[in-house]
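Support reply, case 0932

Customer input (verbatim):
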Amino acid sequence: LNLKDLVTYFLNLRQANVQETPRWEQEYRLTEAYQVPDASVSSMHTALTRIASEPHILQRYYVYNSVSYNHLTCEDSCRIEHVCAIQHVAFNTYATCLHGLGAKLVPGFLLILTLLPSLHVLEVL
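Our regenerated output:
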């Protein structure tokens, strides 16, 4: 499976309630948001590395994770919580990550297995 990109869309519910036809809007495109060439395992790992280490990329992820609703600043404890959540689906390993040395990166294949179920919309280009 060679994914070229992932695109996430959202539906503004307030707007949808007053319009006759709901309108889906693009929230972000993976390659643009995280400066990666495609949606490969390697690129997903690069995106996680950037989320874990670059505050402006973490903030971008944090805003997108709340469907552009939450505009608070994501500081260190927030970073650890989110990076651990991206890497660890099972609660026991998530809790270990939180109480361990923080958000250490996992191999790319495990990352892609973790991220795929949580994607809102997957677009294969």
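We compared this against your earlier run and they match. Two observations from our side: Helices lie at 13-18, 30-33, 41-53, 55-65, 76-87, 91-99, 108-115. The first strand starts at residue 7 and ends at 11. Please reopen the case if you see a mismatch on your end.
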